[in-house]
Amino acid sequence: MTRKVTKRRPAQEQDKLIFTALRESGRPVSAYEIIDQLRDRATLAPQTVYRALDRLIASGSAHRLESLNAFVACCQTGHQGSAVFAICEDCGTVTEFAEARAVDALSSWAKKSKFAVRAMTLELRGRCGACAAQMA
Q1: Which of 23, 32, 102, 120 has the smallest number of CB atoms closer than 10 Å to its CB?
Q2: What stretch(es) of the chain map to CATH 3.30.1490.190?
Q3: Which fold would CATH assign to domain 75-136?
Q4: Per-residue pLDDT of the chain (136 residues; tens, 9 = 90+)
Q5: Strand order in the sheet with 94-97
Q6: pLDDT (0 to 100) of residue 53
Q7: Using alpha carbons only, what angle is made at residue 50 by residues 47 and 55, rounded to the nearest 5 degrees?
Q8: In the chain, which residues fall in CATH 1.10.10.10?
Q9: Contact, 97 vs 84, CB < 8 A?
Q10: Is the dihedral of CA 108, 113, 114, 118 positive or negative?
């Protein structure tokens, strides 16, 4: 049995490939879904994808949605690592939006409580406008 020889990609190239996959998916995806999505273009191990996702999150290019155990490409600029997401429990759409007052209020509480915030991701769970209109 012969083994397929694969060329190791530089980290920047892997990050770009994975970021593109996140953007193209248009929905939250797991690391394993990214591997499946890129199967025709690359052979990726799960730890490679997780390392790339960690770098993308650190750079502000992606976010991890804790409640879904999934990742999304960042749609906002300038939110300095804090993000707010509305997650529809019916259709699964995720909308990223900027809500500086909410982030500022929580940051202020953390500062008063001497709590060192490493990252802040707010997740609102419910029903989007389109799904609510269908229910009516």
Answers
A1: 32
A2: 75-136
A3: Dna Ligase; domain 1 (3.30.1490)
A4: 554 445 667 778 889 999 999 999 989 999 999 999 999 988 899 999 999 999 999 888 999 999 999 999 988 766 666 788 999 999 999 999 878 888 889 999 999 999 998 878 889 999 999 999 998 8
A5: 94-97, 82-88, 120-126
A6: 96
A7: 125
A8: 9-74
A9: yes
A10: negative
Residue 33: both structure tokens together: 């879904």
Which pair of structure tokens corresponds to residue 68?
Answer: 């879904």
Token pair 């694969």 in the structure block, residue: 6
* pLDDT at res. 5: 44
Q: What is the CATH number of domain 9-74?
A: 1.10.10.10
Tokens 């929580």 belong to residue: 106
